[in-house]
Structures are given as structure tokens and as C-alpha cells.
Amino acid sequence: MNSLAASRWTYMSKESRSIAPLSESERELWHAIKKLGENVISRVGNDIERRTGLSGSDFGVLTRLEDLGGGTLGQAELGKSLGWDKSRLSHHLSRMEKRDLVAREAAELGRGVIITITDTGRREIAAARPVHAGAVRKHLLQHISERDAAVILKLARRLSAA
Questions:
Q1: What residues pair up with 19 in beta bridges, in sequence order?
Q2: β-pairing verdict for 72-74 and 102-106
Q3: What is the pLDDT averaged over residues 36-55?
Q4: Paired residues of 73 in beta bridges
Q5: Each residue of 79-128: pLDDT tens digit?
Q6: Which of 47, 66, 135, 153 is the one with CA 20 to 30 A from 36?
Q7: What percent of the chain has pLDDT over 90?
Q8: Are the CB atoms for 122 and 103 separated by under 8 Å?
Q9: Would you say 24 and 86 are in contact if contact means Cβ atoms under 8 Å apart?
């Protein structure tokens, strides 16, 4: 065992040390699931950016503002819905604010920050939604059957509940 592996082993709990590594088939499944998500998300994001100028992240922020908050959400709620940490969200919102896609203002009583989609943001997301729908169909839905979709949804629901 090399020194790096030995140092990792030292910091692992006894319980962690007793867990067997993934088998070849488990590792293959894990990587296939990761790659599937990464590839589809990347391709859809690239199509949106190429056709509209919005990044996939911009699209995610703007759609959540519209779909979850009717155009306005607290920054903490927005971050939670995206699965982003505070720093990533704050930096991304700064870039979007400079492009007039969103506006930020302090919440009442100084409790957080309110994010609002601007008119420019609404126009941009309205133009991007059909591109997104087409890209999802092109890069995912046309490649799976209704039965495949049902199995994937069942699995996703089960894993979300776990």
C-alpha cells in the first residue's frame, strides 16, 4: 500500500474499513448513471447556450424563479432548489444581475435576499423554454421507450424517498 493509500486508511473509521469496495458491476452501473446524467444535462445546456446565449445554470435559475416563485424567491430557497451552496449562487446571481436577468434586494427586516426575474430575464427564458424542450426530446426522450421512462421514474421516486 502506498503512503497516500495508507494515510486515507488511517483516517477511515473502523466501520468504513469493513465496507467492501464496489464490485466491477456495481462500479459500472454507478459510472453509467453518472455519465447518463452528465451527458444529457451537458448536451441540453449546450443547445440552450448556443441558441439563446443563456447557460444551463442561467436557465435553471430563471425557470425556478418563474416556476417555484412566480418570478420571485428568497435566495436561500432558490439555492436549496438548485442544490447550490451560498457562494456559488451568490457569484452566479452577480453575473446574471450584470446582464439584467435578475435583480436582488434585501428582504424585509433584513432577513435574507429576495431574487426577482427582470423583464429581460422573462424574455430570455420565454425564448429558451422551447429550445430546452426540443433539446430534452433530442438528447433523451427520443432514445427511451415509454416502458424505459416508467422504470426510470419509478427508480427516481424510490431513490428520492430513501
A1: none
A2: unpaired
A3: 96
A4: 115
A5: 999 999 999 999 999 999 999 999 999 988 778 999 999 999 999 999 99
A6: 66
A7: 81
A8: no
A9: no
CA dihedral 139, 141, 145, 151 (to 10 degrees): 100
Distance between start and end Cα atoms, the chain: 35
Q: Which residue, 61, 57, 62, 63, is CA-closest to 44?
A: 57
User: In the 3-class helix/strand/coil scheme, how is 80-105 assigned residue by residue?
Assistant: HHHCCCHHHHHHHHHHHHHCCCEEEE
Among residues 127, 57, 141, which one has the least CA distance to residue 94? 57
CA distance 9 to 13: 8
**Is the separation of the CB atoms in 93 and 113 below 8 Å?**
no
d(CA 94, CA 48): 21
Q: Are 23 and 15 in contact (CB under 8 A)?
A: no
Q: Are 121 and 127 in contact (CB under 8 A)?
A: no
**Grid coordinates of 96:** 446574471
pLDDT at 119: 97
Q: Is the pLDDT of residue 161 over 70?
A: yes
DSSP assigned state of 114: E
pTM for the full model?
0.81
Where is average pLDDT lowest: 1-5, 83-87, 142-146?
1-5
